[in-house]
């Protein structure tokens, strides 16, 4: 690497305000193969049930549609995410407790971006996807953890049977 390029990279790295974080807090990432209480990253080469999820604001509320899903244990789901709102939103799969802890971290670092297979942030009118395999039975949550969004109702339930 040329010295001027190395200096520019170092300066950007030191001055950057973007924080990458996973459900465990600032700087934490589960990586590509990490299994959690709510499952593991899916395999894009394997079949998956497609579940469209829209994100939007309406009448002073922020919401997902649908806001409740039922999944079979072991099932792989390809969430097709569409932000139809006027604000950026995220879709973070976790336990309720993990999402609440992560939401508190987001209040301290509102520009935090996620680098985890269970989370995706979308700008207005953009789309994306998450492929997730639900390996354990239970009740889990998807939520938008951008400060104020969860409080405005932006959460949903995933029941794994």
From TrEMBL:
Looking at the record, the residues that make up the Blue (type 1) copper domain are: 53-161
Q: Where is the signal peptide?
A: 1-21
Q: Which PANTHER family match?
A: AURACYANIN-B, COPPER-RESISTANT CUPROPROTEIN COPI
Q: Which GO terms describe its molecular function?
A: copper ion binding; electron transfer activity
- Give me the ranges of the annotated region Disordered: 25-47, 103-123
Protein name, UniProt field = Cupredoxin family protein
Domain of life assignment: Bacteria
Task: Work out whether the entry's keyword set contains Iron-sulfur.
Answer: no
Record keywords, A-Z:
Copper, Metal-binding, Signal
Give the matching CDD domains.
Answer: Cupredoxin_like_2 (cd04211)
InterPro entries registered for this protein in UniProt: BlueCu_1, Cu-binding_ET, Cu_oxidase_CS, Cupredoxin
Q: Where is the composition biased (Gly residues)?
A: 25-36
């Amino acid at each position: 690497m040329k010295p001027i390029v190395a200096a520019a990279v170092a300066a950007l790295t030191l001055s950057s305000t973007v924080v990458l974080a996973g459900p465990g807090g600032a700087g934490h990432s589960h990586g590509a193969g990490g299994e959690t209480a709510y499952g593991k990253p899916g395999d894009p080469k394997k079949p998956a049930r497609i579940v469209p999820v829209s994100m939007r604001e309406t009448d002073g509320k922020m919401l997902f549609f649908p806001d409740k899903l039922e999944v079979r244990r072991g099932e792989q789901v390809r969430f097709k995410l569409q932000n139809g709102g006027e604000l950026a939103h995220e879709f973070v799969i976790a336990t309720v407790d993990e999402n609440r802890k992560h939401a508190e971290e987001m209040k301290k670092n509102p520009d935090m971006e996620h680098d985890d297979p269970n989370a995706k942030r979308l700008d207005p009118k953009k789309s994306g996807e998450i492929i997730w395999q639900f390996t354990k039975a239970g009740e889990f949550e998807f939520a938008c953890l951008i400060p104020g969004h969860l409080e405005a109702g932006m959460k949903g339930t995933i029941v794994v049977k």
